[in-house]
Amino acid sequence: MMYRAIVIGTSYGGLEALNMILPELKKDFPVPVVIVLHIGEHSNDIFIRHLNAICELEVKEAEANEPILPGFVYFAPPGYHLQIEDDYSFSLSAEKKLNFSRPSIDILFETAAWAYKNQLIGIVLTGANSDGTNGLKTIKHFGGKTIIQNPCKATSPVMPRFALKAVQPDLKLNLEEIADSLYQLVRTK
């Protein structure tokens, strides 16, 4: 299976989790990574600068109509739902919050699943609500690969636990195992 995108959803404890995963993905990592991190209405600027200082991949905020390309880690802008279109570009929406969140992990995951079908990897990490659960079910429905962080090791186990109740994931992993697993998945033909 050739994967064309990875989507990650996280909230409380997510920046620390991403600090462990993203620096392990080297410049030649062949698949783009798209992330919803719940941070309220605060700007992404500070942690994007921080991640660019420690990551080989370029980290940036996603923009409307931007094509999704390998070599990049894209973050949803605060206050907007991030959607993936059928032409593998982004669109932004200011529609109402879903699961008390905008950006919504479910909206990213569901639109990514519709676009990429079985060529998608979806990951739910630490977090404090159920956002991402329905989206991960959609990814599974389309034949994509699903990964859930082991809730016993998560800063906030709520999000991974909700996901585990609804989805039998392909992999349940500790943070330190995720980057290696992603390399194994994207190198498998």
Automatic annotation (TrEMBL):
Molecular function GO terms recorded: phosphorelay response regulator activity; protein-glutamate methylesterase activity
EC number(s) given by UniProt: 3.1.1.61
Enzyme class: hydrolase
Catalysed transformations (reactions): [protein]-L-glutamate 5-O-methyl ester + H2O = L-glutamyl-[protein] + methanol + H(+)
SUPFAM superfamilies documented for this protein: Methylesterase CheB, C-terminal domain (SSF52738)
Annotated active site: 11, 38, 131
Upper classification of the organism: Bacteria, Pseudomonadati, Bacteroidota, Bacteroidia, Marinilabiliales
Ranges of residues in domain CheB-type methylesterase: 1-189
Matches recorded under PANTHER family: PROTEIN-GLUTAMATE METHYLESTERASE/PROTEIN-GLUTAMINE GLUTAMINASE (PTHR42872), PROTEIN-GLUTAMATE METHYLESTERASE_PROTEIN-GLUTAMINE GLUTAMINASE 1 (PTHR42872:SF3)
Keywords, comma-separated and alphabetical: Chemotaxis, Hydrolase
CDD domains assigned: CheB
Gene Ontology cellular-component annotations: cytoplasm
Protein name: protein-glutamate methylesterase
One Gene Ontology term from the biological process aspect of the record: chemotaxis
